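Per your request, structure below.
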């Protein structure tokens, strides 16, 4: 059990797999699978460093996930929080003494 489990909330994670069709030609096909994990989601404000530096925008988010969710939290996968979908742009595994403490995911809001 981690602090993420104690203070987080359930969010939907959509795992995305892309592949060429069976002939190996043509368009890429996308397969998705949804699951629920516990996370702490912080919406980014104008004064956040990643916004000031231009890496992400105001309204994007940083998510903190349990290290046990490493298979679901990958670049290109999507996270839904408060009915808004985000795409994971980058991840960072925070560790202390070689033990993973949490996964930090930088996420861009998907505009539909």
């Amino acid at each position: 059990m981690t602090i993420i489990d104690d203070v987080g909330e359930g969010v939907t994670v959509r795992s995305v797999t892309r592949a060429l069709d069976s002939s190996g030609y043509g368009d890429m096909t996308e397969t998705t699978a949804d699951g629920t994990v516990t996370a702490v989601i912080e919406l980014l404000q104008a004064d956040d460093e990643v916004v000031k530096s231009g890496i992400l925008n105001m309204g994007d988010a940083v998510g903190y996930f349990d290290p046990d969710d490493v298979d679901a939290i990958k670049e290109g996968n999507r996270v839904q929080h408060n009915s808004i979908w985000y795409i994971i742009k980058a991840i960072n595994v925070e560790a202390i003494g070689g033990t993973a403490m949490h996964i930090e995911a930088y996420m861009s809001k998907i505009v539909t």
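Residues 48 and 57 are 9 Å apart (CA to CA).

Regards,
D.
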